[in-house]
Amino acid sequence: MGFHFILLLLFLFLLCPILQAAESQEPACGEEVCGNVTIFSPFGINRSCYTKPWFRVTCKPTPGGEKPFINVNGIELEVLDSTYSDADADAVLISNPVTHINCDHLNEASVSMDLSGTPFFFSSNRNNFGSVGCGNLATILSKESDSLAGCVQPRCDDDASESGCYTEFTGNFTSYTVNMTAMYPDSKRCASAFIFNNNFFPPAYPLPTGINIGTTHFPAVLSWNSTYCGDPGCTRRSPRLGHTNINTYNVDSCGNVTFHYPFRMKGQDNSNDGFKVICNKTANGEKVPLLNINGMNLQILDFSFLDGIVKVNHPITYLNCSKNHHSGMSLNLTGTGFYYSNFFNVFWSSGCGNLVTVFGNETNNLIGGCLQPSCRIHNKTSSIVGCSIPIPQGLSSFFVNMSSRVDSSDYRRKRSCEFASLISFSFDLTSKLDDFDISKRTHIPTQLQWGTPMFGECYLNDSSDTSCTSNGEYCWSRLSSNHLCACKVINDISYLKSCKGCSTSVGTLFLLLATWSMYKVLKRKQKIMLKQKYFKRNGGLLLQQHLSSNEGNVEKIKLFTSKEMEKATDNYNENRILGQGGQGTVYKGMLIDGSIVAIKKSKMVEGKKFAEKKVEQFINEVIILSQINHRNVFKLLGCCLEAEVPLLVYEFIPNELPLTWEMRLRITIEIANALFYLHSAASAPIYHQDIKSSNILLDDKYRAKVSDFGTSRSVTLEQTHLTTRVQGTFGYMDPEYFRSSQFTEKSDVYSFGVVLIELLTGQKPISAEQSEPVRSLVSYFLDSMQENSLFIIIDPMVVKDGPEQEIIVVALLAKRCLNLNGKKRPTMKQVAMELELVKASGGNVIEECGDEESEIDDMIHSGETNPSCSMSRTITTDSVTFPLN
């Protein structure tokens, strides 16, 4: 018996390497991996893993690494995810080509998709139709040239700005064409149209975040027949506040509606007039809750505290029937504390063959529109009954106009009614619009927003500021006068499990080994899926699009693994931290090859929520740095996207401040040349937008490197400025940009001027420790020059080490860079050339200005300077002066 037991143990010992070898073999069907994408059935890479040719996946090398592709009627489509499921069909996420119109430089990238002869089709459950452009009616047409849907792009303010629109469509189709009709004389310019996945891009107005004219591919979902939906994304996800602990408040009811804070029954104390509920008794004895808004009583249908909404029976905005007509003007919610919810409503227009336009508070403020489908599609009466339009956030009133378009069918003339109104998403349009006579309806369910939900967790205060409903369902703490931390109380039940004991035997040992092997396999797969999740969340798909399209001559970017980053930073040891800031934490790391690098762990969490906006900023920094190749610009080595937060890997540069004048002058020249390269010599002009001393690093040879391109932006050669939300560092920010929100290349010149006077004075731009007159370095510097007392504020080391004439000329150049009028500042090209001349002249430098309003002293002139100022140097050998133009 003992001999057999030893044999069994030996068998199990030999079985372990067999299990490990099996684990390391080629992955099974449904578990194949190409790049960062797991290929699930029915798709496959190996011949044994797919049954039909259209499910064959080819793993191809690209500049961004290996990527999976499927071939659909001769067009190679990149597979972004094969785990999608549709409401009534299986689905796959692919990179769909964009159709460009009137874009000479992009026409070659335009591709028409035709899925005929394959099991694939575009489904309305997961896709929207979108368009980028200005003032056009974008229409998507079927193979038979019938309009399926359309939207109207808002008019742009100027040639440099960009706008667009998007809309839902109904039904499935295998091919489409696009038509672009100019609504204004100046609308005929570069435009694009595309089908895109409606869950991939964050909703925004007038276009979802992340969509622009230069993109050649967008994620879209291809479906094929199935009836199973196993994806929680099939249902619309609403924003919620996180769960916290609990504590009490009155719950009122009227009829079938229950409500509580901030709504109160009329007659109760401490209630805002705008939130008073009137419980009205009807003729048949039923109780109906009413809300009086601007003199109009609206019936309350439902109330949601965490969503911050109340559903009301709202008057139909536009109705054109033979017996009934509504003008098209909505109820005005201005000043009431309510606005129309853009998340829980959809603007729907019923009818066919009409162009529907929606205007904001002013009738000339076009906020969107859509084209209803043709009244006859495929030579039979269409089941599509209208079109929808997204609305902007915070809309308080709107006006609707509907105009008929030429339609060959007489079906439209037979319809008795056409209407357009804002409708609650919970109202089932597809079934109910045919169930009732719209001509007999005057109201429609609409959601009014009284509070804005925010993602993330918050914690209830243990104080008198915390309240709960009397039934204990909801609790909230007042964080400020208009901000609540709210939660829905959930009763958690803990289950205790006990182990009764187990017997030890060879069979148990074998079972444990098998279970352990299975656990390792599942654990490895779980890690792969988690890394794929992080890769998508951290902007990996967006980065892959840029790499595949090679926009702006993007260089190949190395993608590091999370394991490499952990090893390089000693698991993010605090002793490796080089610095911390608003953008993240920088670690000193060592790669496998022994090279020293700086690893920036981006800050992606605000409070306790993941900041989607910062992902765009991170990817923007990667793209900008990958386009730049200059010795005085920080070099990006690669990035890691499969960690919980994205990481950037840079060359390592020890930041030490040199003290000699010669070094300071050389540093300013190198910074100026780097900015001149960004503004003029790069493949696409780049505005840095955050030039400051802390973003100027020095390598071991004291060469300056410009870093931190998180807020930088590429511009076209025709663009003179960027209109953006004001961002930057106080003390370095261009006052002209702060006032107008328009960032130009001269805004970088101003920031460079601040760095220049920092190097001259050795002081920070803002100092809270100084007295009021000298708190701002720029003001103190300009006042000192005005009073002819420049050398009082110059760093004593500079005064001791530098030639007086060179210091004066550099100070005068800094003054010109700091001119409040951006047009009077020099360009970075002029700045770089003048600094080079200062260095080459050895102190024999004269600044010449053509300012008609002031005279120039030998040292400092007091009037406004002119950007046409030039420098000349005197060559003492032959006494000839060469002006530098």
| Assembly state of the chains shown | single chain
Taking all Cα atoms into account, the compactness measure Rg is 33 Å
How much of the sequence is in beta strands? 25-35%
Shape: globular
Could you explain the architecture of this structure?
This protein is an alpha+beta fold and 885 residues long. It folds into four domains: 151 residues, no CATH class; 141 residues, no CATH class; 117 residues, Phosphorylase Kinase, domain 1; 229 residues, Transferase(Phosphotransferase) domain 1 (Transferase(Phosphotransferase), domain 1), CATH 1.10.510.10. Helix content is 21%, strand content 29%. The strands form 16 sheets. It has a seven-stranded mixed beta sheet with strand order 18-19-20-21-22-34-25, with no helix packed on it. A hairpin with a 5-residue loop joins β40 and β41. α1 packs parallel to α4 and α10 packs antiparallel against α13.
